[in-house]
Design a protein that fits this description.
single chain, 186 residues, alpha/beta, three-stranded parallel beta sheet, two-stranded antiparallel sheet
Length: 186
């Protein structure tokens, strides 16, 4: 049977585009990523990657395996989530994306209570721009995201995503006291 870690590595490589980016995304070393890809190639008896200049690319078999493997991994994750949900206690790992002040002001303060109420849940976070975070949630690279929006209306989200307004943050404007707008109350 194909090792799920090796398959997850291949799918991540297909998404990230390089061994270094895959290592960063999965939290492993580049050597560990290369080892998983070699192990998968040996098991299958055919290479899943090939050298292209200074980098590597997926072979046709590697691309097909990545495509089908992504679907299988998503099904496995859904199966695990459903099974764990029946226990009534959150477990596993979730990755939350966000912007620096959102992570610092919203996510981090919630971690102590979350650790107390769901000790078997591991939270990791990444920092990125809102549009990139929306894309990452859409394709399943992260589980949830804190985003901000300076526009007049709510952000445009794909129909496959749900959103919830969790706070409205006031913006402070700093100006010299002699500025002609300084006396206005906003």
């Amino acid at each position: 049977m194909i090792d799920t870690l090796a398959l997850r590595t291949l799918v991540a490589l297909d998404s990230a585009g390089s061994v270094t980016a895959t290592a960063d995304a999965l939290g492993y070393t580049s050597a560990a990523i290369s080892h998983q890809l070699q192990k998968l190639s040996r098991y299958l008896g055919s290479p899943v990657t090939e050298r292209t200049g200074r980098g590597i690319a997926l072979t046709p078999m590697g691309r097909e395996l990545s495509r089908r493997g992504a679907e299988l991994l998503q099904d496995l994750e859904s199966l695990e989530t459903d099974a764990r949900a029946r226990s009534g206690e959150p477990r596993g790992r979730i990755t939350v994306g966000g912007f620096s002040t959102g992570i610092r002001g919203v996510l981090v303060p919630s971690l102590p209570l979350l650790k107390e109420t769901a000790p078997e849940l591991t939270i990791t976070n990444i920092e990125e721009e809102p549009d990139e975070l929306i894309d990452m949630v859409t394709v399943g690279r992260i589980d949830a995201s804190l985003i901000f929006d300076w526009r007049e209306g709510p952000p445009q989200l794909p129909s496959t995503l749900n959103s919830e307004l969790i706070t409205v943050d006031r913006a402070d404007i700093v100006m010299h006291r002699d500025h002609h707008l300084a006396s206005r109350i906003w």
